[in-house]
Specification:
The protein is an alpha/beta fold. It has one domain: 4-Layer Sandwich (Metallo-beta-lactamase, Chain A), CATH 3.60.15.10. It is built from eleven helices and 20 strands. Strands 1, 2, 3, 5, 6, 7, 8, 9, 19 and 20 form a ten-stranded mixed beta sheet that branches. It has a seven-stranded mixed beta sheet with strand order 10-13-14-15-16-17-18, covered by helices on one side. The longest helix is centred in the middle third of the chain and has 20 residues. The radius of gyration is 22 Å and the shape is globular. The protein starts with a strand and ends in an 8-residue tail after the last helix. About 45% of the residues are buried. The C terminus is likely disordered.
Amino acid sequence: MATPQIIFFPVGNGDMTLIKLSNGQTILIDINIRAPGEGVRDVLKDLREKLSEDEEGRPYVDVMVLSHPDQDHCRGLVEHFHLGSLFDYPVKGEASKIVIREMWSSPLVYRRASKTHTLSDDAKAWNTEAKRRVQLFKDEGALEDGDRIQIMGEDADGKTDDVMEIVIKAGERITNVAGKSYENFSALLLAPRNAESDEDAEELTKNESSVIINYSIGTGATPDAVKFLSAGDAEVYIWDKKLWSRYKNQPEALEYDLLSTPHHCSWHTLSYDSWSGKGEEAKVCENARKALSQTRAGAYIVASSNKIVDDKNDPPCIRAEREYKSIAKDADGTFLNTAIHPCEKNPEPMTFEVHGGGVKPAWKTRSAAAATSAAAAIGTQPLSHGSE
């Protein structure tokens, strides 16, 4: 069994994270694949190097999750991923497209898209493919790899009532990955949720409807060795009014060893006030901060964003960084930014390993192993004449 990993790709203000389970299965959360060049890493190459191929030689992810349909979360879908039936997969041609064995998708994030927000071709293509798979389930029942889908959250007005077998309700646990149950994995779906009031209906916009999942990834006898909280672009209302109000008496639902800062380290996740408008006078929403402060000891908080600097940009926001650093410090943890790992000039994928004792940065594990190996090598060398 391989060591489970969680890999953050440096994609600027965007999200792209790969979970690799110890049984070899993979879960890809969002993509932001841009043409490589000056300041833009070839993350497609990085991703493909980490994927397996099926018996037909097709690269695949077992699951792909779309948190919400902004372009910085689905860029590159049409160009680099196969959409449609596997019977239509090209036998020959350019570099093989990546197969998505199972989609985790929410219709609510599309239903709540703003009338002034134009969906990209990639976002439209995801929605079309999700609808194809749902219709196929309605027509044929159980699905095979390449046609599978699990719906994240019930749709509005009972629109998913006839496909509840493939619906995961908010508050329920996901235990199957591409049709396979695995004892060292589960995932708690926290959002999106249906509107419960007129206020909800007004506030639950596209970002506030992001898919939020707390993944439990285990190894050996520890099924939840690491908890990884991933939340798309969910902003302050969802953390304040929907999650903390619901889970303040069950904070373990929000606990994490690893957090991907929502909305690329945006101040809008922690405050109702504008950073560019109020600056240091902007107030933190305490409930939202509490929801995002349910750290386990030694937690890592990762901003998938551009380099964070002291300006009025949001995201990423320097004030949000300060809050997350404070949250991490209270847990004896660490705040990191994908844009400057391991250095600003040449950022690389940031890989964490899952061990029985918790999450460990792979780069530190490698450094320690290299130091041990070097020390052992020195220790076995014969002493020189000068040291006798």
